[in-house]
Amino acid sequence: MKRGKCKGDGPEGSPTPVPANPRRREFVMHNKAPMWNENSQVYQLDFGGRVTQESAKNFQIEFRGKQVMQFGRIDGNAYTLDFQYPFSALQAFAVALANVTQRLK
User: Fold this and answer.
1) pLDDT of 52-93, one tens digit each?
2) Is the pTM for the entire model greater than 0.85?
């Protein structure tokens, strides 16, 4: 990796400069679109039995056409969170928490 020079960059342990072109990985994901249920006249997502109550907070995220995260209400104030790569546990929890707190306003 190439290093750029910064003021004070020397052998005395001065700060290391930030690389000019750090490697970044970008993941483009999207919310899965719900399907229209003609019988009940509502939009629905299939949670495979993991989510048992309707809520505006329920969601699913897709990455490259594959579902990688789902979050939904299972009881009163209880929710379930399922995730896989490319999410870590911390990232998945942060997304779910942001979704819940955004809708509390």
Assistant:
1) 998 889 999 999 999 999 999 999 889 999 999 999 999 999
2) no
What distance in Å separates the CA atoms of residue 36 and residue 42, rounded to the nearest whole number?
A: 6
Q: Do 84 and 70 touch, CB atoms closer than 8 A?
A: no
For residue 96, give the 3-state DSSP assignment.
helix
Q: What is the largest CA-CA distance in the chain?
A: 73
Alpha carbon distances (Å) from 12 to 8, 9, 16, 26, 104:
9, 8, 11, 36, 52
Tally of CA atoms within 13 A in the half-sphere of 50 that contains its CB: 16
CB atoms within 10 A of CB 74: 14
Q: Are 51 and 80 in contact (CB under 8 A)?
A: yes
